[in-house]
């Protein structure tokens, strides 16, 4: 019975080609142009899934983005996507889809017993029931029963793209209104971007191809519009592209599905799977249409029950009969469109059940003329049929629409097309913080006030449902947007497209909750949110329990919180709450709309910023050399720094110990390129540095260097580094690797905002220079051999700099030390970095020159008790806490952060202060971050923490473990014993001075 | 100069020369080329037509552009880029930084101004080809449409996560990008990956 | 995402900017003369108005200049931009419930 529900003709499908696909393990055929939903319906498949909570059989409810039920798992790991709406999945050859959320099978789901126990599963049931002894005990089985599809287990093999886009006008929606707006603006030369979520343009015209626009059938008008837009050079049309988010200042997110509609074997490999467009639009026209609202009646969720507009769409757009014998339930005139379409397609139409007291309106009249049986003032009081609708019960209502008379007459049917009015698709408008007003006549929320400049909402999205009026409104909005973007009219422009009033659905009778023969909650369920299995009885329970705010009712019942975000349920929930509270709908108000409109895969958000492109990996000119030496790398900010250089058979510990020892014994070399470097120039440079450093720089002589400490205004250490005076009005400041950008910004901020009169210019030169530090007893000998510099301590003392040639290249050399050994920091222009480095390595071979990485650097400086900003400090440490009073000028009346040092809290003796720590065992290296306490483990918790370890290493030069720590009142605790409680033991240790090696500092001088 | 034999581009590890072409391949939508070793001197000084502007003009032979985003000079030779109200780049494809610096220092003597050699701080590459704008739009939040960013303009912005200085050299279009030297590898890989859907030719430096 | 009209570069995406908090907080000329409370007020305390705020931004990935912005914290509308050191423009306060 291949495609036995396909009509012999009609629809925008290519009947000359067949596509094979499988659903739930069974094979079917469809045509290009089909969605998975239309192809399933063509094959008579209505049952496509089970519901979230009660595992009730569910079918295809809609024909678009609003679909609450027909969610499928598409494809196979690793190319699998859960929660895909069958109504939006384009069919391709070889498509495989599985129902979600049923076990062991779709037809026989054991968890359906939940449905029998449903009276025990009301809102808040989980909150109330599974609290004791704790939720964890119940989580496993409950999660197994609930959930929505499976995430892929394997890494995503696909590629995703992201791009910025700018336009004069973004039009969201490629229906008649969107096309009219885009044409109006595009013809004037404006840059227009039109996005349409569907695979093709036309919007609802695809389901009414014989409506007339400008005297043409709609299908022809759409085709002409498409062709014209394509011919305009500044217009871009994106189909399969959903505008899912609307942020401030007309910044919008669009997800384009680039290759999802191809069969996997034919997907063009050079194209990304999906593309995220980050659009900045001068003007936005929202023409996002409207979504039909279903009435809420008892057992309204069976397969075979669908929106009336969906029934029309399947008939007209896809040439599919959505059922064999149909019933229509409506409270407005648009339900009759489906009735007429069904009848014309030869579907046996039992009747139209009209909730209105009288069937009034142009379509009702037409239906009556065509002999369609109409029962006005009637309700559907319930339905039957397990895996597919079999019958509906129909009964007359009272005048109020509150109750029905009699037990209900059964009517056999396998399709129930329903309409409860229309909701403008205001999601994007509301995301952009626009506010809504309730339209009494149309019984819907429509846009009232924009929060964004340069925004218009047109057509169905604006509550303008009649086609002709929508086209006029959209045309005008397009012209206005063009005008505002600077594209004036020529005077000989085309008029707005003309059409009739098709789309009007008034009059409408406002009934949200259709009465049944028993009170709500008894004998069946009135589903409001089908995806989350929230019934009207749950809303009423929430109200009985005292919830009043619609936001609270929403969260308690989870109505509207499923993946469809309540597209077909929110207004019904609001209406039912309003009715029950006896309040007008606008007083209940709406819940907040948040992005995304429809789900966006994480891959699209990530784009190509994954794996090796996740974040910039900044490398130094010597990076390749480090790699060739087998160096392990450490991330320091975005930089890749050589961490240590293991030789064959060495682990990190041995390699670092060797590097540390070699440096003190003979000679080490470090790539220090990443240190921040800023040229500070101008007549006020010295005065400026005096204000930003805690110590004095105006007294620094030309040619000399000085270590400096910077504080934030709160008195906390912010950065440190050595600054050298290149000339009277020129300094070269160095910063920490991680702090380089922050320090430059910090200095610029003060110069521009607070001290604009200061004559100082800053230039970052961090990467102008490749920097290599040679350190150790043989440093001077090596430098002497490869440079033309005079290195005697008279001409080139510690803390000074010189310019000369190193390895034939012009260099700036600084004699400064972070290891305590005699050290020279050689700076050459980056392009020569590798050449000079290699020369030093070659020439240093006789001294067993040893490249050392950042870990050895950390050990060497810790042996000397030198701090590292960010390791010993964490934004809450002052220079006094570090025992660095010596660097805080007593003479300067002011510098940044100075005043804070005099706040009483800064003076407290029990502040955490920097100390050294040695373990009593001597060999035990404490973990960094270890807490320190005063008792040895016998004390009962809570045990007061008195400090923590900030740095901790094995020191081969001291032959013992050393550590730095911040300890409360530490400077007064020298020699005291503390304990470090670890996971499996407690380590006894002693507080010491934070200098472990060469306390006199003699080695600096060789 | 002996130093020329010692110098290295930050992309030397990619061995680009081995598959570089003189022109973009017929099927490719974009072409990438590195432009290493160009001179970039960062100038800071007061804007306006004062002593600073004349000193720079004397030393460089180019008028100092006053509007942020404006360029004077010639793309392949010497250029002045206005990057901020008191910040310019003096770029040169031929002369070395040292001689230019000497000339600038001479002319600027006694003024409150700064000229710093930042040639090695930056790395230049060029994007050209019919889809060059589409490629760049993936990485850069600027509006690159000729109406908003015509040839002969420059701007600082972002290339994905790397800060960049962008120039549009012509409407073919061809763009020149400067990123910090340490971002060279990242920028090249990012653009090569993003250009895959158009086809990427590598042009010789 | 905001579109900020940099006084030097024109409208640019928020991505290119960094935020500098409330504007017109002058650093005290003689910090030593301030009481602890006055100093703490300068260092730590900032307004958080619902409505009009005057704040500082820096075009970090552009001209690197600081400037002031008057913005509505409810609508995010940028009312005006003006240079550092300029007197704040006279704008009507915006009141929201």
TrEMBL record, chain A:
Entry keyword set: Oxidoreductase
Residues annotated as signal peptide: none
Domain named GCVT N-terminal: residues: 622-892
Ranges of residues in domain SoxA A3: 524-607
All copies of domain Aminomethyltransferase C-terminal, residue ranges: 912-998
Pfam families: FAD_oxidored, Fer2_4, GCV_T, GCV_T_C, SO_alpha_A3
Domain of life: Bacteria
Similarity comment: Belongs to the GcvT family.
NCBIfam families, per database record: soxA
PANTHER family assigned to the protein according to its UniProt record, in alphabetical order: AMINOMETHYLTRANSFERASE, AMINOMETHYLTRANSFERASE, MITOCHONDRIAL
Name of protein: Sarcosine oxidase subunit alpha family protein
Taxonomic lineage: Bacteria, Pseudomonadati, Pseudomonadota, Alphaproteobacteria, Rhodospirillales
Automatic annotation (TrEMBL), chain B:
One Pfam family this sequence matches: SoxG
InterPro entries: SoxG (IPR007375), TrmE/GcvT-like (IPR027266)
Top-rank taxon, per record: Bacteria
Protein's recorded name: Sarcosine oxidase subunit gamma family protein
Upper lineage: Bacteria, Pseudomonadati, Pseudomonadota, Alphaproteobacteria, Rhodospirillales
From TrEMBL, chain C:
Lineage: Bacteria, Pseudomonadati, Pseudomonadota, Alphaproteobacteria, Rhodospirillales
Name this polypeptide is given: Sarcosine oxidase subunit delta
Superkingdom, natural source: Bacteria
NCBIfam families linked: soxD (TIGR01374)
InterPro entries, sorted: SoxD, SoxD_sf
Pfam family, one: SoxD
Organism per entry: Aquibaculum arenosum
Gene3D superfamilies: Folate-binding superfamily
